[in-house]
Amino acid sequence: MSAPVRVRFAPSPTGYLHVGGARTALFNWLYARHAGGTFVLRIEDTDNARNSQAAVDVILSGLRWLGLDWDEGPQTGDADGPVRGDKGPYFQSRRGEIYRHRAEELKAKGFAYEKDGALFFRMTRDPVTIPDLVVGDVVRPLTDREAVDPDWVLIRSDGVPVFHFVNVVDDLEMGITHVIRGEDHLSNTAKHIALFKAFGVEPPKYAHIPLILNLDGSKMSKRDQGASVQGYVDGGYLPEAVINYLSLLGWSPKAVGELFTAQDLVPLFDLPDINRSNARFDLKKLEHFHFEHVRRLPADRFVSTGVEALRRSGIETSGFDPAYVRAALLTVQEKGKLFNELPGWTDFYFVADDAVVFDAEAKAKALVPTSVPVLEQLATRFQALPEYTAAALEAALKALAAELGVKVGVLIAPCRVGCTGRTVGPSLYHLLEVLGRERVTRRLARAKSVAGGA
Ligand code: GLU
């Protein structure tokens, strides 16, 4: 029987969580959950100059937002806290003792020597074959420079251990069984395998995943649209949609369809199904996933996420009846909008009836003197309805249009603009029902006086 799966996500705190990093984290998380293994989070922060608590927090909060929980590593609130036994937190900056110890071991075994104040690794002179679960066997020939002198630095003269060394020591110490990471690290792997062998330990299995490129095939940089996970948080995307989209960047499920939750993905995901070719990032496609996931979201979660989005934009709903807030937000769920767009679709629900802001163009088109009699009759019909429901409101409006011999649009436009201030929004009859008799009556009266030139 093979050893239980242990995988890790090992980001360097660069100040943001790159979409490629998030996808690497996702694949590791999925594989751990798929195999019933352990997902370790390790912050590779030996490069002190670049590190700050804020840079670490960006990574932790990005992973939490995506729902990628880790089993070992920094826990909530203790990024600054004590190191607790072997359950982490794993910050390389706190593991200096382990690295010094391992450096001594290499020296004792004759694999490391000092020169010019630095510690060098005596690299193998033979070509190294990298057995990779995604790209197959890769033989990395020595570069010209390496052919002359293949040795490389383990610990710099200023005492800082280099990435390759701490990365391998930790994978070894943490019992990592599978290294799933970006293909940009394939070129480092010969060094890593040689180090494992020097320690007398079998290297983990490797799965290098293809890169995520821009649509035009260029490399994605920090400034590119979609490059940072925080951009999705700020942009009002649903994390479920981001997870779904990222899962398909470089992995093809055997299952039919492409709409998955993280829980759907766990049984489906496996390393051999990772693609060999690079993936291209398409924001339109992500928006499509957002649309589909929002429409399927349980109402409670849609409402709580919507309330949060409104609050961020300065709209406070806590002064309103919770049932009203819920009903109001649910009139837009099926639109599948980004949560950032929600204020523009629902703000009219949360203002006083005499404070509805009329869009200038909408007002010029719909709230004109000819609308006055229309608004008046509509208000009378609505007022007389025994039941103030979307169906009854719709029937009343249509009946009036038929009697007047006009298209429904002639009634709909001034009614909608009068009640919401805009020409587009949630379904008119549903929003009228949610606003309710009193609000609608007051708003139509105000619309009438605005249309009449008051
Ligand atoms: N700290 C490395 C990075 O952020 C991780 C390399 C690895 O996963 O082995 O690219």
Task: Write up this protein.
The chain has 454 residues and is mainly alpha-helical. It folds into four domains: 96-208, 3-Layer(aba) Sandwich (Rossmann fold); 229-295, Orthogonal Bundle (Glutamyl-tRNA Synthetase, domain 2), CATH 1.10.1160; 299-350; 354-451, Arc Repressor Mutant, subunit A (Orthogonal Bundle), CATH 1.10.10. The protein contains 18 helices and twelve strands. The radius of gyration is 30 Å and the shape is elongated.
Defining key terms:
single chain; 454 residues; mainly alpha; Rossmann fold; Glutamyl-tRNA Synthetase, domain 2; 3-stranded parallel beta sheet; 12 strands; 46% helix; elongated; binds glutamic acid
In short:
The chain is mainly alpha-helical and 454 residues long.
The overall strand count is 12
Question: Which ligands occur here?
Answer: glutamic acid
Strand content: 5-15%
Coarse shape: elongated
Biggest sheet: strands, sense, closure? 3 strands, parallel
Count the helices. How many? 18
In whole angstroms, the N-to-C terminal distance is: 83 Å
The rounded Rg comes to 30 Å
Question: Which class of secondary structure composition applies to the elements?
Answer: mainly alpha
CATH class label of the largest domain: Alpha Beta
CATH topology name of the largest domain: Rossmann fold
Which regions have little confidence, pLDDT < 50, spanning 5+ residues?
A: 76-86
CATH superfamily caption of the largest domain:
HUPs
Order of helices and strands: EHEHEHEEEEHEHEHEEHHHEHHHHHHHHH
- Spatially, the strands of the biggest sheet line up as 1-2-3
Helix content: 40-55%
| Total domains | 4
Give the rounded overall mean pLDDT.
93
The CATH architecture assignment of the largest domain turns out to be 3-Layer(aba) Sandwich
